[in-house]
Design a protein that fits this description.
The structure is a single chain. With 538 residues, the chain is mainly alpha-helical. It folds into three domains: 136 residues, HUPs (Rossmann fold); 82 residues, Serine Threonine Protein Phosphatase 5, Tetratricopeptide repeat; 201 residues, DNA Cyclobutane Dipyrimidine Photolyase, subunit A, domain 3 (Orthogonal Bundle), CATH 1.10.579.10. It has 22 helices and five strands. The chain is globular, with a radius of gyration of 26 Å. Bound molecules: flavin-adenine dinucleotide (FAD).
């Protein structure tokens, strides 16, 4: 099936790597010529000056830059193998179909399978055209450890909704490919396709963007493998890794691997990462286990991918069967204060500044700000926070981001809404001097240690000495934490009670009807009480 001459197209989207890349292997096998393509999608890459941060309408500049760096690295690796990356621009489906119509004699089209709704729709279009044109399509699963479709099938057609049931069904993932390419088939004639080199950030129209807004993490497979090797070298660290025990305020040397952006773009294969951890475990028989171990983190990733793939409307509250219906607020002012690091709570604001500047924060730091925005203090809709993360994170990932927002807002997976993160004392446990805050919020750098987490409580003389007057140089708190969190818990309790009654009711219209019914019920009861009282009955 795979032999016989003819050209192949290798369509890179994620999976921006040479190692453990089944689609690339299939594309190169038996091909006379190989066309490695990447399509710059204007929808994703074109500057949008109306957005709240530099970047396109979909992605912040840090992530766009990370992607370009990953493409440059991939191009270099392909060049070392006698090939190169052919970059095209436009609507990906249209561009792909145009290329397949070229005189390239294409027999095979290969690309990594993707479970995201955006790619599912795109791939159907391209696949239909290719099959109609007699081109074989290969779309292997290699972004995740497991094939989500298979797991769902093995679970009776539904995604497993707990980590434990997921791991039981999943078993061991397939090993990574061990093949190393010494060369790739050459590129054939290019014809009339408008092909370019990997664009620079300036080519895309971001020339004016300030350099200091860029993340310290550089994209690309080479960087990913270097980072992975560095992490794996410290075997004791790998063997004792235990989440959530790390320090969320460690920023000079983060407490976790920071491999998420590389996994997101597929610069790093999750199966290869998994195998490397297993190799360490073989030499360190005493090691932590899932869900807290490093291996367990990769399983969390696959867990969310599987649930996301098997749950209609996973990315919203409406019509999402696994999402609690909660009457969140749509308060733009509170959302913007949170998004822009102006809540007046230094721990929360520093994390949000790290998000904007670095596009990455520690897992527990993400917990704190997500909890604060939703069920902890502000009661703003998790979808609004999700959107901010989706734009600014360099590791923004549709399945994982939505899954974790559902979790943190107690909308799904986790339901202990009485357990909230204090925006003042949680960070203090790890970083009593507030070094993290001083770094990301330099306006507070001279605030004495005892006030750094609650600067509004510092006497005016101290604020003056620290060159930071609260309410002028740094905002006053947007809410009083004690009363705000109490009110949030009360509303969560109410929504949970309603959802018990609901049982199967999943959309907002049904919820409204039910609320009306409950209100009517209450009214009836009040009326009944009143008439009992006036009639002298107990
Ligand atoms: P490590 O601890 O070194 O873990 C290794 C890998 O395991 C990570 O790179 C990641 O791929 C995976 N992993 C770890 N924790 C989780 C988790 N809770 N869920 C799923 N996979 C996990 N992670 C993303 O990759 N993209 C997102 O868009 C994203 N959004 C999040 C939003 C919220 C509100 C929260 C609370 C968490 C989010 N996470 C997201 C999960 C987690 O915070 C990051 O994966 C992790 O902090 C990345 O750092 P690391 O690579 O050093 O992780």
């Amino acid at each position: 099936m795979l032999s016989g001459s003819g050209s192949s197209v290798m369509w890179f989207r994620k999976g921006l790597r040479i190692h453990d890349n089944p689609a690339l292997q299939l594309a190169s096998q038996g091909a006379s010529h190989l066309y490695p393509l990447f399509v710059v999608d204007p929808h994703y890459m074109e500057p949008d000056p109306t957005s709240f941060s530099p970047g396109s309408s979909r992605a912040g500049l840090n992530r766009i830059k990370f992607l370009l760096e990953s493409l440059v690295d991939l191009d270099l690796s392909l060049k070392n193998l006698g090939s190169r990356l052919l970059v095209l621009k436009g609507d990906p489906a249209e561009v792909l179909i145009r290329c397949l119509k070229e005189q390239w004699n294409v027999r095979k089209l290969c690309f990594e399978y993707d479970t995201e709704p955006y790619y599912q729709a795109l791939d159907t279009k391209v696949k239909n055209f290719a099959l109609g044109a007699g081109i074989e399509v290969f779309s292997p699963v290699s972004h995740t450890l497991f094939n989500p479709t298979e797991i769902i099938e093995r679970n009776g057609g539904k995604p497993p909704l707990t980590y434990q049931s997921f791991t039981k069904i999943a078993g061991q993932p397939p090993p990574p490919l061990t093949i190393t390419h010494s060369s790739l088939p050459p590129i054939g004639i290019l014809g009339s396709c408008d092909i370019s080199e990997v664009p620079t950030i300036e080519d895309l129209g971001y020339g004016d963007a300030k350099q200091d807004e860029f993340s310290p993490f550089k994209g690309g497979e080479s960087e990913a493998l270097k980072r992975l090797a560095e992490c794996m070298k410290d075997k004791a660290w790998v063997a004792t890794f235990e989440k959530p025990k790390g320090n969320p305020s460690a920023f000079l040397k983060p407490a976790t691997t920071v491999l998420s952006p590389y996994l997101k773009f597929g610069c790093l294969s999750s199966r290869y990462f998994y195998r490397q951890i297993q190799d360490v475990y073989e030499t360190m028989p005493k090691h932590t286990s899932p869900p807290v171990s490093l291996l367990g983190q990769l399983l969390w990733r696959d867990f969310f991918y599987t649930v996301a793939f098997g749950t209609p409307n996973f990315d919203r509250m409406k019509d999402n069967k696994i999402c609690k219906q909660i009457p969140w607020k749509d308060d733009d002012k509170l959302l913007e204060a949170w998004r822009d690091g102006r809540t007046g709570f230094p721990w929360i604001d520093a994390i949000m500044v790290q998000l904007r500047q670095w596009g990455w924060m520690h897992h527990l730091a993400r917990h704190c700000v997500a909890c604060f925005l939703t069920r902890g203090d502000l009661f703003v809709h998790w979808e609004r926070g999700r959107d901010v993360f989706e734009r600014l994170l360099i590791d923004a990932d549709w399945a994982i981001n939505n899954g974790n927002w559902l979790w943190l807002s107690c909308s799904s997976f986790f339901y202990q809404y009485n357990r909230i993160y204090s925006p003042t004392s949680f960070g203090k446990k790890y970083d009593p001097n507030g070094d993290y805050i001083r770094h990301f919020l330099p306006v507070l750098k001279d605030m004495p240690r005892q006030y750094i987490y609650e600067p509004w409580s510092a006497p005016l003389s101290i604020q003056t000495k620290a060159n930071c007057i609260i309410g002028k140089d740094y905002p006053k708190p947007v809410v009083l934490h004690d009363s705000a969190s109490k009110e949030c818990k009360r509303k969560m309790g109410e929504a949970y009670a309603l959802s018990k009654e609901l049982d199967g009711v999943v959309n907002e219209d049904d919820l409204k009807i039910l609320r009306r019914k409950l209100d009517e019920g209450k009214e009836q009861e009040t009326k009944a009480k009143r008439s009992r009282n006036t009639s002298g009955l107990a």
